[in-house]
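Reopening this one. Same input as before:
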Amino acid sequence: MIRPRLTLAVVAVAGALAGCTLGPDYVRPEAQIQLPAQYAAAPLAASPAIASNWWTLFGDARLDELVRQALATSPDAMIAAARIEEADAVLRQVDAALLPQINANASTGRARTILPNTTPPKGLVRTTNRIGLSTAFELDVWGKLRRASEAARAQALGTRYASETVSLSLASAVVQAYLNLRAIDAELLVTRDTVTSQASSTRLTRTRFEGGIVSQLDVQQAEGALAGYSAAQLELEKARALSENLLGLLVGQPGLQVAPGDLRNLPVPPVPPAGLPSTLLEARPDVRQAEAELIAANARIGVAKAALFPSITLTGTYGRESKDLSQLFNAPAAVWSLGAGITQPIFEGGRLRAQVEQVTAQQKQSLESYRKSVQTAFREVNDALVSVRQNTEAEDAYTRAMGAAKRALQLAQARYDAGYSPYLEVLTAQRTANDATVAWVQNRQARLTSSVDLFKALGGGWKGS
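Same output, byte for byte:
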């Protein structure tokens, strides 16, 4: 009876110590990250809360379809999903260590041994058949397994945040590529109108030259301008094809074709409400991922420290043993054993303490990475707010410049038709009007793109107060 009592005593002591968990408990390091309460770049106006599918604010069904397709079939999205599956499997594997392992085993053997104290020596042949169950279970006295589970759980959560980061980046890339395509479409419309107008003007100039009203110089200037605008149109058509190919790559559909559109028809998304709090950074998936990695690194310190302390293992077997298979399941054939073992590292050359120092240093690295991710996110939001504000204010100036250039072109054409000015004045006014319209389109693209950057910097949008 001594051994069973000793085993029970070991179990009782281990159970009393089971609540002990080594290593530091995680505390969010808010005090070590100093950020202003609000963003310095104040918004222009207030707006309601923005949903996670912020790209629908552009009111373009084709864009919505492309984003959905990219998030569903893009290789990057598929890789992120597979990583989540891997992290979940690792978590289940780590959690399995918290439960006892039970194995079934069966064996049969035949052996010959020499009996001692016999003259001459005699051999004894024995047959042994055995079937049973065995188990081994490490008591988590110091919290090593619980800390390992905590680290794996944080790592799995971080993988999900990484997947959300991929989705956010992918959606932003698709929207920006689509805006670039629509900006090229708008420039193409402007250039084609200019080519059409210039072609008509060139024909009129030739007619006037044949009638002796203008000189050959006017004809050459008109034809040169027409050739220049035609070349610009070809360059824009080439740029559109390349932009379309990039968009097809992002959505995982090579050979994608998008019908022509116009950037000027897309609405401008709202800006965030005044007094935007910096705590919105907590919604960014990359910041959450950095914090999850910090939690995992913090838990690994407990795993490393627990390795310095004794490990207690319980073992047990139950089964049947007999020399004849027919007698294997009779009552006298039952065999069992219970055991408990304690292992304490005595000398390992400082390996375990070095491991504690290693994971502690890794935790410090994760802390600094988390701080850097928060500060970088704050800067990105401020930069995006500045870009949105500046591009919005600049649009009014570009609108006035475009209107003035178009009116100047009308006046220059009227003066030329009346014979008051040379054709060069018309060409200059035409070039100015074309450049002013293209500049307005490019600023509108920059304004929409900066809105996309703001959505991305805020982790996909914002919530109402």
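So the earlier flakiness isn't reproducible anymore. For the record, The domain at 22-98+142-309+352-457 is CATH 1.20.1600.10 (Outer membrane efflux proteins (OEP)).
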